[in-house]
Amino acid sequence: MAKGLYIHIPFCGSKCPYCDFFSIRPTDELIEKYTLSVCKALKNVPYEFDTVYFGGGTPSQLGADNICRILEEARVEAKAEITVECNPSDCCEENSFDFSALSKSGVNRISLGLQSGIDTERKALGRRAGVKEAEAAINRAKKAGIDNITLDLMLGVPGQTADTLKESVNFCVSSGAKHISAYILKTEEGTYYYKNRDKLNLPDEDACADLYLECCELIERSGMRQYEISNFAYPGFESRHNLKYWHCEEYLGIGPAAHSFIDGKRFYYPRDIDSFMNGCAPVNDGDGGDFEEYAMLALRLTEGLSDKKTRERYGFGIPKKIFDRAEKLTDIGLLNIDSGRIYLTKKGFLVSNSVITELLT
Question: Which pTM does this prediction carry?
Answer without folding.
Answer: 0.95
